[in-house]
């Protein structure tokens, strides 16, 4: 008997447990932070950064490399599957419904970048980190929403999810366009051929997952050696997986997303938090330009960009606010968009590769901005009525 994994069925299963990965991520981030500031700090960093005795892929020399360049490709695969599902059969399929969250997400990426550049104006060597405060960590944000129970209208939660999906698209584009090293054209050509082969399989009706997964692994290997960050391969592979439903409400994309969403949320992202959130609090000050620019970008820039877009569109008659949402709901949601964490840490490591002290400073800014945004968002939403007044 076929499992019904239609969009609604999958969404309900994910929604039932989507807050839990955020709570696990919070616990892992706290653990990494505590261990990095304990007598075990040296051993903790060595666990992730010491070269492995043997690695099947020469470019991945440490456990940290395997997590950031290997396991995170699966995370980006899941993100890509989610993006494709939302555009084909979800909230982004309707142009009228996606207008407001798309504009809110774009403004929520642009304003934090401008805040960051304003703070780091006199430090041109830091300008490469402009994209760090532009990301939203949906797992962390949903973990905060879970702590609030049913105080938040479902429309606000759905709006936050949609903004985060569009935000992910923007972050992926930024990584591919702005954080790419020199290109190795033969490997890039091979990656293009593999992607074309996967797209052709979709075009000619191949619905079995194993052929896609084999070529996806090869695509990841080719992209890893091409100069483009390897995690982009996960998104490219996701876009080739068939999404059309059969008579049982099933599709390869929904089966794969269902199989991987737990692995990504409960294993890969927490591992990333453990490997990347550990920063020695005495290694820098929040008032230095880099961490201050990131923290202010996340806390001030995110809420300003999202709120200006929502209120501006509403006032101009371009789109209506989410049903049942008052100003406090919208403000609290905009504050939660300032939880950057996973993607911000990831971009920070790319932006300042080869400058460990700047990566550490960036972590301080990300942790501070995300924590302040989470606390402020929870307080505002806690004060908001369950539904907006008539």
Fold topology:
Layout (H helix, E strand, L loop, with lengths): L6 H11 L1 H18 L4 H9 L13 H27 L5 H25 L18 H10 L6 H25 L6 H19 L5 H18 L5 H9 L11 H25 L12 H28 L10 H10 L4 H11 L4 H28 L7
Structural features:
single chain; about 400 residues; Na+/H+ antiporter like fold; about 70% helix; globular; disordered N terminus
Q: How would you describe what is shown here?
A:
This protein has a single domain (62-383), classed as Up-down Bundle (Na+/H+ antiporter like fold), CATH 1.20.1530.10. The termini are far apart. It has 15 helices and no strands. By secondary structure, the protein is mostly helical. It has helices at residues 7-17, 19-36, 41-49, 63-89, 95-119, 138-147, 154-178, 185-203, 209-226, 232-240, 252-276, 289-316, 327-336, 341-351, 356-383. Residues 1-16 have low confidence and may be disordered.
Helix content: over 70%
Q: Please give the radius of gyration in angstroms.
A: 21 Å
CATH architecture term:
Up-down Bundle
Quickly give the structural class. mainly alpha
Mean pLDDT over the full residue set: 88
Topology pattern, helix = H, strand = E: HHHHHHHHHHHHHHH
Number of helices: 15
What's the domain count?
Answer: 1
Oligomer: single chain
CATH topology: Na+/H+ antiporter like fold
Top CATH class = Mainly Alpha
How can the largest sheet be summarized? none
- Secondary structure: number of strands: 0
Percentage of residues in strands: under 5%
CATH superfamily: Na+/H+ antiporter like domain
Shape: globular
* Separation, N- and C-terminal Cα atoms: 47 Å
Low-confidence stretches: 1-16
């Amino acid at each position: 008997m076929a499992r019904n994994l239609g969009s609604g069925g999958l969404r309900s299963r994910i929604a039932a447990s989507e807050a839990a990965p955020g709570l696990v991520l919070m616990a892992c981030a706290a653990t990494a932070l505590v261990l990095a500031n304990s007598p075990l700090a040296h051993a903790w960093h060595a666990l992730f950064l010491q070269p492995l005795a043997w690695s099947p892929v020469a470019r991945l020399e440490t456990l940290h490399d395997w997590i950031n360049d290997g396991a995170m490709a699966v995370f980006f695969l899941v993100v890509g599957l989610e993006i494709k599902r939302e555009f084909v059969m979800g909230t982004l399929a309707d142009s009228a419904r996606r207008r407001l969250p798309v504009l809110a997400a774009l403004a929520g990426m642009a304003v934090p970048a401008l805040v960051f550049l304003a703070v780091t104006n006199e430090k041109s060597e830091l300008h490469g980190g402009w994209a760090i405060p532009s990301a939203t960590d949906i797992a962390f944000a949903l973990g905060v929403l879970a702590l609030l129970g049913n105080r938040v209208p479902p429309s606000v939660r759905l709006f936050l999810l949609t903004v985060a999906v569009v935000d992910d698209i923007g972050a992926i584009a930024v990584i591919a366009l702005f954080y790419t090293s020199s290109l190795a054209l033969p490997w890039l050509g091979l990656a293009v051929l593999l992607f074309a082969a996967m797209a052709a399989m979709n075009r000619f009706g191949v619905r079995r997952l194993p052929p896609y997964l084999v070529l996806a692994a090869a695509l990841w290997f080719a992209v890893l050696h091409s100069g483009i960050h390897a995690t982009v391969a996960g998104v490219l592979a996701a876009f080739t997986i068939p999404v059309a439903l059969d008579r049982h409400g099933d599709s390869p994309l929904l089966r794969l997303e269902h199989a991987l969403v737990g692995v990504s949320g409960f294993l890969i992202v927490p591992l990333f938090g453990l490997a990347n959130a550990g920063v020695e609090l005495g290694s820098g000050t929040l008032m230095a330009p880099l961490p201050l620019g990131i923290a202010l970008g996340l806390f001030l820039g995110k809420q300003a960009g999202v709120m200006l877009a929502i209120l501006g569109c509403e006032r101009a008659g371009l789109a209506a606010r989410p049903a049942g949402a008052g100003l406090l709901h919208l403000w609290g949601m905009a504050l939660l968009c300032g939880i950057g964490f996973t993607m911000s840490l990831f971009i920070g490591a790319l932006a300042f590769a080869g400058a460990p002290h700047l990566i550490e400073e960036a972590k301080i800014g990300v942790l501070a901005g995300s924590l302040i945004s989470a606390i402020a968002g929870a307080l505002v939403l806690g004060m908001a009525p369950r539904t907006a007044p008539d």
